[in-house]
Amino acid sequence: MRGSLLVDNIGELVTNDIGGEGGPLGIRRHAAVLVEDGQVAWVGPARDAPAADRRIDAEGGAVLPGFVDSHAHLVFAGDRAAEFAARMAGEPYTGGGIRTTVGATRAASDDELRDTVRRLRAEAMRQGSTTIEIKSGYGLTVADEARSLRIAAEFSEDTTFLGAHVVPAEYADRPDDYVGMVCGPMLAAAAPYARWIDVFCERGAFDVDHARAILACGQAVGLGVRVHANQLGPGPGVRLGVELGAASVDHCTHLTDADIDALASHRVDCMCPDGVHTTTVATLLPGAEFSTRSPYPDARRLLDAGVTVALATDCNPGSSYTSSMPFCIALAVREMRMTPAEAVWAATAGGAAALRRTDVGRLARGARADLMILDAPSHLHLAYRPGVPLIRQVLHNGVPQCRP
Ligand SMILES: [Zn+2]
């Protein structure tokens, strides 16, 4: 959108910008934000605000950076509502239901898959997610993984090749052959549309040797590494991620002291509250524990050890069919003992760190003009008023997404 836009009458501005007063969220009061050419051009006291072509009156609502949802599986067909109902009636979650979605996804047309991604992308945007990572992983053939990523790339800059989600049924007795295909023709077809490679390193999915081999092949063609690790039980996934310099290890529900030490011991300079974050971010996905009725990850143990924590939705039809970052914030605060400030930071700047991005997750000069205006005076309300649609307006690249 052309011209400048001033957002003012802000109740509380969360910048995630360090260096000033305002605590870890870099909170400013009586502030205004000037947007130009899709970027934040100026942040400062409202009384000093420059003239602008247009104005948005925040009416005393809080303004936050758009959420950065760094873990979502949006390219699929069908749903698994019946499996959810059975689980709530007492059946355990095993991850085996992924194959149900694989069958439906292979049978779907490109347009059906595209419509699902578009619908979920819009749903997430209405709930404040201006950045969302999108994984493949329900195709599991060369052609179906490539088209999943081609469609994902129409909606996100952060696309992730997850050909190693599960071993598909037709390879059940020869997993080595499947790993060979993932590293060979499937990676070659997927890589042009992917920024990242990911593996589900878990009992029943891929063991550590297969996971290491697949991730190394991805790194060799320039993809960044992420790992689904330690979700269903303890295992080597988190330490493998640290060993390979992964941007993020995701789930982290079952961690040993050695896992936490490994995460905490590698640090890089950043724009975080303490000026450093861990090379590998621990991304927590409480929607998965909620939807599988499982124990939540121990966020306090990670935070107290100095590990950088992100929150994401894990939006997928099996184990966490929510696109709502506010819901995940509420879970993180109520169930995982994160403070509201820690949870909001993890859902914005933490997600950006997990995607190794510095242009999103904060509101400062030069950042992308991705922000939300709440129908509430402070970020606290995101956890304090669970389930309430508090997001009145979202700007993405400086463009208003919805009108009240
Ligand atoms: Zn996932």
TrEMBL record:
It comes from the Bacteria. Keywords: Cytoplasm, Histidine metabolism, Hydrolase, Iron, Metal-binding, Zinc. It is an enzyme of class 3 (hydrolase). GO terms for molecular function: imidazolonepropionase activity. InterPro entries: Amidohydro-rel (IPR006680), HutI (IPR005920), Metal-dep_hydrolase_composite (IPR011059), Metal_Hydrolase (IPR032466). It catalyses: 4-imidazolone-5-propanoate + H2O = N-formimidoyl-L-glutamate. Binds 1 zinc or iron ion per subunit. Belongs to the metallo-dependent hydrolases superfamily. HutI family. Its cofactor is Zn(2+); Fe(3+). Zn(2+) binds at H71, H73, H228, D314. HAMAP family: HutI. It is found in: Cytoplasm. PANTHER family: IMIDAZOLONEPROPIONASE (PTHR42752), IMIDAZOLONEPROPIONASE-RELATED (PTHR42752:SF1). Catalyzes the hydrolytic cleavage of the carbon-nitrogen bond in imidazolone-5-propanoate to yield N-formimidoyl-L-glutamate. It is the third step in the universal histidine degradation pathway. This is Imidazolonepropionase. The gene is hutI. It comes from Micromonospora fulviviridis. Its EC number is 3.5.2.7. 4-imidazolone-5-propanoate binds at R80, Y138, H165, Q231, S319. Pathway: Amino-acid degradation; L-histidine degradation into L-glutamate; N-formimidoyl-L-glutamate from L-histidine: step 3/3. N-formimidoyl-L-glutamate binds at Y138, N316, G318. Residues 249-379 form the Amidohydrolase-related domain. Fe(3+) binds at H71, H73, H228, D314. Its main location: cytoplasm. NCBIfam families: hutI.
